[in-house]
Amino acid sequence: KNYAGIAERTTQTWAKRIRTEPGWNIYEKQTNKSNRAKSQLQEPHILELFNNKPYTTTDEVVDSLTKALEGFTLKSSTVNSFISHECNLTIKRLQRQPKARSDPARIQASYDWVMKYDSSDMNFLRNCVFIDESGFDINMRPSYGRLASGAPAIASKPSAKAESHSILCAIATVGVVNIEVRVTSNE
Fold first, then answer.
1. Containing H/E element for 116?
2. How many whole angstroms separate alpha carbon 137 and alpha carbon 54?
3. pLDDT for residue 187
4. Among the listed ranges 9-13, 15-19, 26-30, which one has the minimum average pLDDT value?
5. Fewer Cβ within 10 Å of end Cβ, the chain: N or C?
6. Cα Rg, the chain, nearest whole Å
7. Are 164 and 136 a contacting pair, CB within 8 Å?
8. How do residues 48-107 score in pLDDT, each as one tens digit?
9. Judgement on whether residues 102 and 79 belong to the same structural domain of the protein
10. Average pLDDT, whole number, for the chain?
11. What percent of the chain lies above the pLDDT cut of 90?
């Protein structure tokens, strides 16, 4: 039975406690946290996992912790709760950024290239042919990952590409000069 939204057994427990402890305040918040064992999950270990690979799944975290703490079993829901409340990690849509993009040497090389052609007599509207090649990106990963709350959702990736089909195209002001499709053989 329920009395005023409180279970019958709870009211019996409170009545017994009022009789045995006259100074007990029934209006203070009732929690059982004092009897709980301290969490054995390792926050630094989990944070390191997500710093190295933001798209780590909960199952991978459970497997990693089970290997680190032998004879220890975990539930995914417990780990999820710990990750979001104790580690303060939130799920965000990741923006992929190549590692080489923020490399100072690469930034300087790009700047030097632009300055070299800016100071030349090259006219990009008349005497220039642009050649481009597209390939397949082998760094496909889940688009969501866990990062610290308030941190930007940027994950760096290696810039390697595996080219199975290449499309080469030369474009000038008069239009497409040449286009070619190459299929790489696996021989």
1. helix 104-118
2. 19
3. 47
4. 26-30
5. C
6. 30
7. yes
8. 888 788 778 888 888 888 887 777 777 888 888 888 887 888 777 777 666 666 778 888
9. no
10. 73
11. 2
Q: Which domain holds residue 43?
A: 2-87
Judge if pTM exceeds 0.90. no
Q: Which helix (H) or strand (E) holds 147?
A: strand 144-148
| Residues 118, 62 share a domain | no
* Cα 153 to Cα 86: distance, rounded to the nearest angstrom: 20
Are the CB atoms for 17 and 24 separated by under 8 Å? yes
- Per the listing, tokens 């939130």 go with 90
Nearest to 41 by CA among 60, 63, 67, 69: 69
Tell me how far the alpha carbon of residue 70 is from its chain's centroid: 27
Residue 18 corresponds to which tokens in the numbers above?
A: 């009022």
The answer to whether the CB of 76 falls within 8 A of the CB of 62 is yes
Tokens read off for 182:
């190459």
Q: Kindly report the length of the chain.
A: 187
Question: Which residue has 């790009």 as its token pair?
Answer: 110
Is residue 97 within 8 A of residue 158, CB to CB? The reply is: no
Tokens of 128: 């220039």
What is the rounded CA–CA span in Å between residue 107 and residue 92? 28
Based on the fold, state whether residues 62 and 116 are members of the same structural domain: no
User: How far apart, in whole angstroms, are the C-alpha atoms of residue 144 and residue 150?
Assistant: 15
Question: Which residue, of 70, 87, 104, is where some domain finishes?
Answer: 87
